[in-house]
Structure of DUF1876 domain-containing protein:
Amino acid sequence: MTRPVRSRPPAVKEWRLNLYLSEHDPDTTARIVLDTGDNVLESHAEARRSPYDPDVPEIGDELAAGRALIAMGRILLRAADGDMKAVGSNETDGPSPLWPTEE
């Protein structure tokens, strides 16, 4: 059995993402640093516990980290949009939303 000829071997890339959480009650801050090998991108986000809510640090961690990851996704989408425009793509309508808007 013959295999199709490929123009280049499959590429495997590894991107390093570090997520740093710091808590200063009632605030939790998340900082993400993404190293793609070509670029280093950074995002930040916060979560604040209401004084009426119980003190559950994991919730603040999850909210801050989730928000920072969403922010990083937006940064990557904007970077891709700029790169597509730079190479002359005709089909750039700006960064795609991370999820459809609710009606």
Residues 57-86 form the longest helix (30 residues). The radius of gyration is 19 Å.
